[in-house]
Predict the 3D structure of the following.
Amino acid sequence: MHDAAAAAARWVRGRDVAVTYGAVVAVAAVLLQVAPDAVAQEVVLRSSTNLVNLRQHLPFALVVSAFLVPTPAQVLLVVPLVWALGAVQRRLGRGAVVLTAALGHVGATLVVSTMLLAGITHGRVALSVATAPDVGVSYVLVAALGLLTVWAPQGRRRPLVLAGSAVLGTVLAVDRAFTDLGHLAAWLLGLALASFVGRAARAARETPAA
């Protein structure tokens, strides 16, 4: 029992930022479930990264929306989220987890909001979308998965990138939902991070030791 507890403690220490993020998301989900429906809906709506909230209180919406999940079923995303961000932390450190989460969530949100604003302006998107609820951790998860492709075995990396891009692109083409656009954007941002990390690692290997 003592050995198992020690092993668990070591596992958490190596992934403390990822575990903390997942724990906060899980606790927030429980609080939303036990709160009165009207209160929970108001919290989700005010924290959403829709166009109205982004205009009125941008920092609050961008930060808080990354810690809320809209349905109890989406709490299950915490498991792959902690795994993916934990893998990033083990390889690159705490700062990389924060950067990946911020780039995935904020970057994808800004891509989606820009496209929605353009669509509303030109009459191709309903005005009601400007106040639609939109919270969750999926952009962070998808960005982390994109980054993790840099450590895939050489022969599997390209197929993984192509398969992920094809799946997300197909979902977007079929469903045409703004969150699907966000997932594709988060994936591409994660791949951009992977490319940067890969180039940095190659440069470090090629630099002669002093």
User: Anything to note?
Assistant: The chain has a mean pLDDT of 91. DSSP finds ten helices and no strands in the chain. The chain has one domain: 2-206.
